[in-house]
Amino acid sequence: MTWRIVRLVVQYGLVLFAAAALNFALPRLAPGDVTDYLIPPEQAGAITAEQRERILARYGLDEPLPVQFREYLAGLVRGDLLISARYSRPVTDIVLERLPWTLLLVGTSTLLAVAVGTAAGFRSAWKRGRATDVSTMSTFMLIDSMPPFFVGLLLILVFSVHLGWFPIFGAVPTLPTEGVELVVEVARRLILPALSLTAAMLGTIYLVARPALVSELREDYVLMAQAKGLTKRQVRRHAERNALLPVTTMALINLGTVVGGATVIETVFSYPGLGRLLYESVLARDYPVLQGTFFVLAVTVLAANFVADLLYPLLDPRVRRPFASP
Amino acid sequence: MRSRGMLVALLVSSLLLALSPTASTEETSRVTIGLNGFENNITPFTHSFGAFPNTHDLVHLVYDSLFWSQARDDPEPWLAESAEPSEDYTTWTVSLRDDVTWHDGTPFTADDVQFSMEYYVEHEADSGRYAHHVGDMPLYEDSEIIDDHTIRLDFAHPAGQFRIMPGADLPILPRHQWEDVAEPGAFTEELPVGTGPYRVAEIVSDQQYRFEANDDYFQGRPLVDELVMPIIQEPAAAFAALQTGDVDYVSQNVPTELIEAFDRADDIEVLRGTIFQSIQLYFNTPREPLDDPQLRKAIALAIDREEIVETVLLGNGEPGRDSYMHPESPWAIDEEIRQFDPDQARDLLDEAGYDQMNGDGIRLTPDGDPLAFTVLVSSFDPQGIRTSQIVAEQVSEVGIDLEVEALDPATIGQRRRAPEPGQEADFDIRVGGLEAHAHVDPDALYYFFHTPGERGFGETQTSYANPEFDEIVVRAGESGDLDERRELLAEAQRILAEDVPMIVVMYPDGIWAHRTDGYAGWIADFGHSPLTKRSFLAEYAGTGVGEGPLGTGVEEAARQPWVWVLVALLVIAVVVAAVFLRRRGADEYE
Questions:
Q1: In chain B, whose CA is at the least distance from the CA of A94?
Q2: What are the residue ranges of helices labelled H in B34-123?
Q3: How far apart are the first and last CA of chain A?
Q4: What is the layout of strands, in order, in the sheet containing B150-155?
Q5: DSSP state of B362
Q6: What span, in angstroms and rounded, lies between the C-alpha atoms of A238 and B339?
Q7: CB-based contact B264:A201 (threshold 8 Å)
Q8: Do B588 and A231 touch (CB under 8 A)?
């Protein structure tokens, strides 16, 4: 038992360390540094090499790489993600401002995509080969093939420009609002970006859900259940419960990718999430923000994995044993 | 089916709520401006150039300079009442207005001017945009406060154009806010205190700015009480928001393909003006064989700039000139406009020894190397990419091969500068854009094209080196006589047109759009975008104030996003519960 816990901690610890090391190393492999971003192009020569050094020194980016790495790890232990070179503010603050919006957007879209995608996938599976299946499949393939950017602009065109139902930009109104009105305004601003992101995920979920149920329906236990004379609803409960396993895994493993996919949608809708922050920080070579944000994302994905591990035994009695290893 | 009814009721009610318009009361006149990028704290040391081109004008909503504006050769007195030079222009005596206060009520005095000069010199690295106008050309030395509103400024060499640079450029800082700030580049905790028409009331990182009018502004109270500036980067979304009326003005240039539609729309007005934009090819002039001016001139002759203006800008611009400066700049010359002439280009290349060709029809240098070059362009600059592709096609007609390589801006930033002083930068040709300041600053020629070294910053541009040119631009910078300076700058431009270290492909027009049912005072202020302080001052602004969208009081709850995660989870829980209840109710799978 203790051994299991130790093993679990060591495993997650190693993965986290590897993620932290990669987050540190990868951005630094790209050419250029933050001064190339901070200094406006036609003024780039106005400062000397020493002045450039001094700017880097302010953010600890002039130190040798091992020292920077040590500082970064020490910061992680302290819960301090250093100072952003682009904003001159603590990375922790910046990430915490963005994280809730990303969770809201990605969370809403993931749940929506899983609900709709699974329902449609299961329906297709039950009706496989029939007209319903073919038409559902084609619809989902069509949605899946549209770039999220295009879906977003299309939604803006229809629901904002023509119908005038939803605002086009931001997560909160430009003017201070409070109470119920604020809830409504935040919801109005969430709908279009969430729908765009849902559309981007829908195909994947559908494509996992449908074959998952199809293969379950071919299992002997389904035949057995039907032969036993169980109602269709009872049979469905058996089969769908098992088919949910790959869907859950897919949805949780996908989280990291979804945050990346949210970048485009956050840009189109000026939504203040982590995706856009990451993208702009890559352009700005803002290493502290990059390593901090990627680390937070790594933790989130690992946490999702952990949740998946915990959920499995609930969904699947076959893996129901203490401390299923990840 | 009770629960199913509940679900429907829930959906309907949330839809109704979503559609109900926001209540508003009439209190404050307000203009909403879609800004194309977040600029960090609005101080001369912290603003980033994410939203370039607005930066200079946003900073100058909050701060003032001694004169305004730099776009003309005779800026009007602003914080200053007058400035008189000594005979040799090394000393300027500036008398200041005595009715100016900082946003916090502290009086503005000569002490602040002295402090600003010293502070910019001391912190030059943190303010590449402004400080070189007191730390290089001209070089600030010392000053003496004569009385509260008079100051004498001493320069190391003649400061002939003091009224323009630094006079109409340098934002004057309050000593009481900055004197204890050791790291101005990290000044993000406090909002700036300026003398300008607007003070920053709120900054929500990457989301929006809110500016409030400075009621005591010495040029009169600004016409709009509040400027709200949400950040909308994506042009398609920003202009959609203009169409729906979510914003009154968009800070970006109207994309060429939208101009016609906006010209026809009743609720949108298109403003045309100039902020002196240009798009140009920079040669890495020390690199062989591009170090040959004949080759560079031949490339210039092989580019059909009229066609590029028609294709890329749909005619909304002017073809570029090899004399560099924008045609409307007070310093530009009109002769020396190079016409498209591929035959002359071929002759020139033959004469210069590039008369042999390889099997692909590409000319060879006398050493036998093909005339093949890479053109670097930012992958975020669609206009630059299209321009360089057309240039490559045109230049291939005379036997020169250009390959366009689109890279991200920071990579280009690294490759354009020499790794160590004296070394060669790692590019052949690159495409870039410049704006306003770079064409109206009479010292721009000095800064961009002076031989690399102690003075100017030519090493990050083209590394062009010509001692004769250096002497002329230094003399122009020091000359106090307007005619003499103009003649010297004309001479410098003629030399550039002959040596072609840079080819300006085109000068795009400034084209902006605002709504007609909101604020009506927008002006296409010469050398600025309409988002500039004079658009909001009664003496300069257009026809007056319209009824802008109006709003309610101020509070901070909107900035606590965690609440929304909880709310969303709750809503989702309800929906999921409703779905499950419904499923329980359904007996049979169809």
A1: B205
A2: 55-62, 110-122
A3: 15
A4: B80-85, B91-96, B150-155, B140-147
A5: -
A6: 80
A7: no
A8: yes
Residues 6+ apart with CB under 8 A from A272: A97, A98, A101, A170, A171, A266, B205, B206, B207
At B283 the three-state DSSP class reads: strand
Please, what is the average pLDDT of chain B? 86
Selecting from A31, A177, A188 the residue whose C-beta is nearest the C-beta of B411 gives A31
Before B508, cis peptide (omega within 30)? Answer: no
Measured distance CA(A301)–CA(A303) in Å, rounded = 5
DSSP assignment letter at A159:
I
Tell me the HSE value of B23 on the side-chain side, using a 13 A CA sphere.
Answer: 10
Q: Please tell me if residue A42 touches chain B, with a CB cutoff of 8 Å.
A: yes
Question: Coil, strand or helix: which one is A256?
Answer: helix
For chain B, the straight-line distance linking the first and the last C-alpha, in angstroms and rounded, comes to 17
Q: Which of A231, A270, A271 to mutate to test the interface with B (most CBs of B within 10 A)?
A: A270
Host H or E run for residue B228: strand B226-230
Q: A50 is written with which tokens?
A: 């020493």
Strand partners, B142: B154
Q: Is A220 on the interface with B (CB under 8 A)?
A: no
**Nearest Cα to Cα of residue A161 among B404, B247, B479:** B247
Q: Would you say B240 and A161 are in contact if contact means Cβ atoms under 8 Å apart?
A: yes
Query: Looking at beta carbons, which residues of chain A come within 8 Å of B205?
Result: 87, 89, 94, 97, 272
Report the distance separating Cα A154 and Cα A150, nearest Å.
6
Strand partners, B373: B402
DSSP characters over A221-253: HHHHHHHHT--HHHHHHHHHHHHHHHHHHHHHH
**What is the value of ipTM here, to two decimals?**
0.82
In this predicted structure, the answer to whether residue B476 has a pLDDT above a threshold of 70 is yes
H/E run at residue B144: strand B140-147
pLDDT, tens digit, 9 for 90 and up, residues B12-52: 455 444 444 444 444 689 999 999 888 889 999 888 755 45
Instruction: Using the Cα atoms of residue B509, residue B515, residue B516 and residue B521 in order, give the sign of their dihedral.
Output: negative
Question: In chain A, positions 154-193, which contact chain B (CB-CB < 8 Å)?
Answer: 156-157, 160-161, 164-178, 180-188, 190-191
How close A66 comes to chain B (CA, Å)? Answer: 23
Smallest Cα–Cα separation from A286: which of B45, B410, B413, B231?
Answer: B410
Q: For residues A147-176, give the mean pLDDT.
A: 91
The torsion angles phi and psi of B514, rounded to 5 degrees, stand at -135, 160
CB atoms within 10 A of CB A228: 9
Per-residue pLDDT tens digits for A121-153? 999 998 888 898 999 999 999 998 988 889 999
Contacts of B556 in chain A (CB under 8 A): 176
Report the phi/psi class of residue B206: left, alpha or beta, with left for phi > 0 and alpha for psi in -120 to 50: left
Give the pLDDT confidence score for residue B55 in this predicted structure.
61
CA-CA distance, B208 to B30, in Å (whole number)?
14
Q: Which residue type sits at B25?
A: T
**Could you give the strand order of the β-sheet that contains B30-34, starting from the edge strand earlier in sequence?**
B198-204, B208-213, B226-230, B30-34, B249-250, B510-515, B268-273
Contact A175 B132 (CB under 8 A): no
Min distance A159 CA to chain B CA atoms (Å): 11
Query: For residues A268 and A277, what is the distance between their CA atoms, to the nearest angstrom?
Result: 13
Q: Which token pair is B425?
A: 């930068």
Helix (H), strand (E) at residue B202? strand B198-204
Tokens of A288: 């502290």
Choose the weakest-confidence range: A30-44, B187-201, B497-511. Answer: A30-44
Between A311 and B75, the higher pLDDT residue: B75
